[in-house]
Each structure stands twice: as structure tokens, then as C-alpha cells.
Design goal:
The chain is 41% helix and 20% strand.
Length: 348
């Protein structure tokens, strides 16, 4: 084949390639196109093989024409391949696109548990007065839970706190006073101490106002000059903070083994303003917490000289505060995880 015949063959093949590449609309047809026009059995391959029969003077020009044509066909293949890839990508984008003009999916928002709300409110109040938050384990030794707060094994008050026994000498703590014991022990007789101890406690109780598990917050102040008057002022402030500044507060003598003297605090009923109703059992008052001056035995048992320091302590049931503040009729509602109940306590 001379140069003129080669040129004619290339031109005819070019026309065929240009027509066929227009019809290619998927990768399978493109592969067929490649095999037919660039592959081992293509006309282009046959033309390259025929170079051995070309006159030596024409081989350079012959090879130049074939190389140029091969690059042209390769270019057609590469361009079409990119075109198909872009088309596929565009289809994928169109099929998977998100319509940002549509309203978003509505996700339900959680709410704070009422016990969490009360705990946070009380912790914030006491921190503002300089108290530190202390914590301890819920599984305690009988020594920390009872003996170090002046409740020996034969003390009748243990019958009032029928405990959950885990092992010999180990119980679920029945009050957060065990944390106070730990703090005093670690202080090695040093003062001042000014702490609150919020947390879960456990007692064998079960009725509308009591649960075998409930939340409690106790406070402890030990110093050389802590007085009963300081305690009364503090309790009045916290109760009015929780239930309203106009709330009347009264204190009654009581008994607790870990304080002496001991008192109980009442607030005027916010339902009837002291006139008497079913909430306050027609007394006009609602019992809310217990407190007193730290018993000298407790100070001595925990490494303090009761002639040099004194202190006061108080304990308040967070569940009880929440029930009164939010008008909840049964303590068990706090522990049923009823979304309808919890949804009422969304915090803005």
C-alpha cells in the first residue's frame, strides 16, 4: 500500500469512527468501539503491521500518518469516556440531591427530670453561699453509715432505717451522712468544713410519699464559731428560695442521733396560705427538713475536739421538695420514665 492508498484508507476509517462515536451512549458500546477501531484486530493495527512491506523511503511518512490517526482515534475514545463519566455523575447527583426548600425533619427534644431541676437549683443556691459539693459511694460500710454518726449497732434509731444489706458490714447507704463521715475523716480534725452532699439513698419504704430509693441533700458546717442562729438563718433562706420569699418558716424541737439540739423545719402551706387544707393535713404547715447542731459524739468519733469546734447539719429530701413544688401526687412518678410526665419539665 502506497502513501496515497494509505491516506484514502485513513480518511474512510476516520469517517466511520466519527459516525460511530456519535452513537455511543454507554460504557459497553464504548468498549466495543475501542475494540473495533483501536484493538488488536482493528484496521489501525493491520495498517501498522503492513509497514514492513512499505518502501524504505516512504516508511517515515507512513508511520507519521498512522501515528497521527491513532492519536486522533484515542482522543475520540478518551473524550467520550469522560463525557459518559460526567453524565453518570450528574445523574447520580440529580437522583441524590436534597431539596433544601423542604422543612426539616422534626426531632423531639428531651426535657430535664424534675429531680435534676431541683438538685441543680439547690446546688446553685448553696454554692452561692460558699458551700462545696461532696460525694461518696452508694454502697457503704456500716461504720461510715451508722457508727460514725452516733448510731451504734444497738441504737433504736436503726429500726427507723431498715437498710438494704449487701454483705456483712456493708449496706446501701440510708442517708448521705456517710459522705459527711468521709469528709470529716479525711480532714484529720481540721476546720472549717462547709459542704453539701446530694445523692441517692436507700431505705425499705413504699407508699405514695416514700420510695425505697430517693434523692437527698445534706449539709455540714464545722468551724470554731458556727452557731444555732447561723443554722436557722440558712434554713430560712433556702426554704424561702425554694418556695417563695413570703413563705413563713417555723422550727420545732425534734430528735436525731447525730445532732443535739435537733429541730424540724416547717413551711406555711402554699396551697391554703396557712388556713388548713388536705395538703397540709389541715394544720397550715408542711414538714420539710430536719437539722441540728452536730452532736459532740459525732465530732469526737471523726477526730475533732468538741471543745474547740462545733457545727451544724441538715438534711432535705429532694423528692419531697419536687413533689411539693410541682404538685406531684406520687413519688413513684419520678422513676417510671413516663415521657408524658417528664415532658412537663422542659427547661427553657
Amino acid at each position: 500500500m502506497n502513501l496515497e492508498q494509505l491516506s484514502q484508507a485513513i480518511e474512510e476509517e476516520r469517517k466511520v469512527c466519527l459516525e460511530e462515536i456519535k452513537e455511543v451512549d454507554n460504557i459497553d458500546k464504548l468498549n466495543l468501539f475501542k475494540g473495533k477501531h483501536i484493538g488488536k484486530k482493528s484496521l489501525l493495527t493491520e495498517l501498522f503491521a503492513s509497514m514492513r512491506n512499505v518502501d524504505a523511503n516512504d516508511k517515515k511518512e507512513y508511520g507519521k500518518m498512522l501515528t497521527s490517526f491513532r492519536e486522533e482515534v484515542n482522543s475520540l475514545f478518551v473524550n467520550k469516556e469522560k463525557e459518559l463519566a460526567d453524565k453518570k455523575l450528574l445523574e447520580k447527583i440529580n437522583n441524590e440531591k436534597v431539596d433544601i426548600t423542604l422543612p426539616p425533619y422534626s426531632l423531639p427534644l428531651g426535657s430535664y427530670h424534675p429531680l435534676t431541676l431541683i438538685t441543680e437549683e439547690m446546688v446553685s443556691f448553696f454554692k452561692g453561699l460558699g458551700f462545696e459539693v461532696a460525694s461518696g459511694p452508694e454502697v457503704e460500710t456500716e461504720r461510715n453509715n451508722f457508727e460514725l454518726v452516733n448510731i451504734p449497732s444497738d441504737h433504736p434509731s436503726r429500726d427507723m432505717q431498715d437498710s438494704f444489706v449487701v454483705d456483712k458490714g456493708i449496706v446501701l447507704r440510708s442517708h448521705t451522712s456517710a459522705v459527711q463521715s468521709r469528709v470529716m475523716q479525711s480532714a484529720n480534725g481540721q476546720s472549717p468544713i462547709k459542704i453539701i452532699c446530694p445523692g441517692k439513698v436507700y431505705r425499705r419504704d413504699s407508699d405514695a410519699t416514700h420510695s425505697h430509693q430517693f434523692e437527698q441533700m445534706e449539709g455540714l458546717v464545722i468551724s470554731s464559731d458556727a452557731t444555732f442562729a447561723n443554722l436557722l438563718e440558712l434554713l430560712t433562706k433556702v426554704l424561702r428560695h425554694l418556695f417563695g420569699e413570703k413563705r413563713e418558716v417555723r422550727f420545732r424541737p425534734s430528735y436525731f442521733p447525730f445532732t443535739e439540739p435537733s429541730i424540724e423545719a416547717d413551711i406555711s402551706c402554699f396551697e391554703c396560705n396557712g388556713k388548713g387544707c388536705s395538703l397540709c393535713k389541715h394544720t397550715g404547715w408542711i414538714e420539710i427538713l430536719g437539722a441540728g447542731m452536730v452532736h459532740p459524739n459525732v465530732l469526737r468519733l471523726n477526730g475533732y475536739d468538741d471543745n474547740k469546734v462545733q457545727g451544724f447539719a441538715f438534711g432535705i429530701g429532694i423528692d419531697r421538695v419536687a413533689m411539693l413544688k410541682y404538685g406531684i401526687d406520687d413519688i413513684k412518678r419520678f422513676y417510671l420514665d413516663d415521657v408524658r410526665f417528664l415532658r412537663q419539665f422542659k427547661k427553657e
